[in-house]
Amino acid sequence: MTGLLGAALPAVPLLAGLLGLLLPPSPRGAATGEGTARRLAIGLGVAGAAGALLVAVLLALRVGAPVETSATWIDLGGLRVTLGVRLDGAAALVAVAVSAVALAVQVYSIGYLRRGPHDDVEVDHRYPPYAAQISLFTAAMLTVVVAGDLILLLVGWEVMGLCSYLLIAHDRRLPEAPAAAVKAFLVTRVGDVGFLLGIALLGVSAGSFRIADVLAHDHSTGTLTAACLLLLAGVAGKSAQFPLHTWLPDAMAGPTPISALIHAATMVAAGVYAVTRLFPLFAAAPVALTVLGVLAAITLLLGAFAATAQDDLKRVLAWSTVSQIGYMTGALAVGSPSAALFHLLTHAAFKALLFLAAGAVIHAVGTTLMSRMGGLRTAMPVTFWCTLIGLGALAGVPPLSGFFSKEGVLAAAEAAALDGAGPTPSWVGWLVWLAGLLGVAVTAWYATRLLLRTFFGATRIPLAEPHDPPAVLRWPVLLLAVPAALLGLAGFAGTFAERLRPAAPATREQPSDLLPPEGLVHFTPAVLLPLALLAVGVGLAWAGWRRDPAADPARFLGPLRPVFARAFRLDDVQHTLVVRPVTALATATRAGDERIVDGAVEGSGRGAYRLGGGLAALHRAALPRAATAVLAGALLIGLAAVLIGGWST
Amino acid sequence: MSAFLLISVLALPALGALVVAATPGDRAARAVGTAVAALTLVPAVLLVTGDHGWFGYGPRPAVQPWHQLDLPWVPGLELRFHLGVDGISWPLVVLTALLTLLCCGYTLWRVPEGAGSGKALVALLLVVEVGILGTFLALDLVLFFLFFEVVLLPMYAIIAGWGGADRRRAARKFALYTLFGSVLLLVGVYVVVAAAGTADLVTLTGGSGLSRGTQLAAFTLLALAFAVKSPLWPLHSWLPDAHTQAPTVGSVILAGVLLKMGTYGLIRVAVGVAPEGARWAAPVLGVLAVAAIIVGSLVCLAQDELKRLIAYSSVGHMGFVLLGVATLTATGIQAALIGNVAHGVITGLLFFLAGAVKDRAHTGALAELSGLRETAPRLAGLLGFAAVASLGLPGLAGFWGEAFAVVAAVQRGGPLWTTLAVLAAVGGALTAAYFLRLLRRVTHGRPSPAVGRIGPGVAVAELTAWAPLVLLALAVGLVPTLVLGYASGPVNALLEVVR
Fold it and tell me: What is the ipTM of this complex?
């Protein structure tokens, strides 16, 4: 029964998505049937997400011990690929988060895509495929969550990349949207080269792609390290970790609800989740975890600093996602998947809240630039309070959810640094811990800046009359504010902590003794450290703003501001080191293929033709020369006949 | 029953071609041709019935056909009319029959402009079908060669008669280049037949009685011949011209099934008959296959014509298939088989769609195409689906062949094969890059003047031709056993004799 529920989890939104794709896409100008198609699309989308949420909640209530079902999908020369689910408490909780955010996004989109933020034209003429693609996206993420086989996981993993591509390119009025969509798909796909090779190594080593078999098999150290490192490439692509993080900020070209979906519950969460799923393998490959720790520390600070200098509201949030995922991968690197999952869940709640609230702001003022906002607090009280909760959770203000989960990450890093408790060398613990602490202050600074620039001070848009969004936008935001505020308290509950622990605490050298037995949250005096840093960050931003409420506090960054705003120019580096050489190589290859390879073929053809022409010309000789040639030929043949005949007799 | 099925698969299109040619009236003749193609599909599918196991005593032969027909043909030369079908050839037989049916049906709706009538085109398509089906069914080496050659001239006529502006040159290049391959095939066949004293593939599989030297020579000749057909880089340069200039139905048949004669021949004939040669040449084959993947994708990345891009993408995709064969592992050969079928389905669909775009916009230059999703969202959506299927999205047909060719190379292990696996996987990312570039150019952005004229409508005949391919791309992706369900037995038997 539980296994059936697990299979139904991705199947429900998948069905809704496939049916939705069959609806007429209703092109521009086609007036008839548009209303019906849109209503049907809304119904399918919401029903799919709600159904998934229902199944996920049922699962979360039922699942205790890990449940596994599997059937052979295909046997390729002795390598078995199975079709089945692998359910544990963590999977069920992540599934609840995914489907809850998906439902919020589906409902929110009804209102958000009725009118464009920039103009008064009806822009919902492609609503059916849009809603269907969200359903497919949800189904793909839920497939990753429940998959009991690496190949099945890869299916969900890549379909998710495709859906992000389709949805980011949805807004046809943005000229940068197609490029951003291609970038998102391509960068993650480059990471997936490693992911596929990692899966291949593990599958070949274990003789099966079933996760249980792969975990149970005794891999050689070399294989394990290589496979884990390769898997990390895919994880870095999906979860936007340095150096494959460049797609995420550009993905802001997608509609705001899609940003919420990508940043909160799907896509970026998949990488972290996949590592927790295979954590026993990583725990036995400390080299891979060390690499992950270094990348996490870089990403955490890179994202946080980049967020400080953005003027685009959504880009601040995008960079904050990069940074927060860095906390999660940091927690993984110091050997605490439960802390990573806890932060993943709270982040899903508060980041979805923040994006949907930002959507309400953008919807009201018609721009995404904070330099054109300001003073929205009085006009949009509901949005203001919800954003305040979200930003508080993001910065880690007690008792909001982010405080507890970030504290969990920092505590794990501290333990790894001071006591050497993690599977990695203690310097990795130090690195993650210090980066995490610095990140707390920077996060507090940019969160405060965002709040002040958007909601406080004098308005910088005299003409607009901002107002709180209509009910269909308001309710998803309000409901998401509840977990964003309170989910952290669940960390005290033993049952909650029980579920987030690795399903199979394996027989490897360090089982789940890293985890606090009673709950996920446990305070030590060290908790004062992040709180102090939080106060410093908030205080600095506030003091800077107080000096001149109309000016951007980012001016205090001085010469660093343009560097941060362009995120250390890593986009340019990527362009110079990857895009341009590949394009040049492609042009050169094409020329070589056409001139040399095909040139040889064409040349031999022409050569044969010319040779024929030459011989023909020789044969068209005038009489004296022709007669001479005939006589010479006769003489030669005769000579040959005599010689050969002479030898043979 | 066995004999009846095998004979009817070949006789129906052969007689059908004659009937079509004799039917008065162009439209009626095309309808007859379509009906014949539909009838041919029935016995082709029914071939799956029959004896799938080996119940006899003694060592298992390497080829165990489900159905067999073995008649003396030219007794003086010991040639036999020997046909048979098994798990390796059956999916290809069905694919051939299906694609021919779809092409004939498409011709019912639209005849490409050209020298001849639609009637002649349909008749030629049916003759091509006979040749391709015969190639997949033949179990006699000389018979195999004959069927292999039957395809050449009608295909030449299709390209030269109904193709694009530069059709004559392309058709000539196609015919001469592949004829060059055929000469090698002929020599190879006679090297084998002369050395072994028989042309029976069932007896020959396993290299029984051939000396090492003969096997190396035979494999080299046969592999070169099949490499031209497949095509394997650097023997591919006939393909872009032929595919670009051929009419839509010609391109579909060319890419969909004609290329498969090369890969099928490589597995069944070259590897089967000269296993020692295969083992000896495997590293070279693998390196060339990966070169094809990389070069093919790089050329696509710099390509500026729609049909030419899709044609070049075939070079890359067939590279994955050949890599699978080159590993000489069960995983690799099964990946090659499913990759073969998937490429036929997906590239067939891509050529149908590219033809539809080109017919409507009257240009195939990527620079003049943009914004298709604004004016023709359904067509753009289908093009997107086909492109995504072709770039190997997991869950669709293209995935299995490509991913498991990489897995098979990893399985082979060692520095060479591991490097090849890595490069092939990188080629997968490049494939995604050029298809996304294609979609970005063609479907996104503001409509170009050429695209602006296109109406949103898609004809019922077009949907009927495309729908089976769309469904198959999805079905094979979700249920790969459709293709590989019966393949593991024959593949393992083949590999037993190769090792």
Answer: 0.91
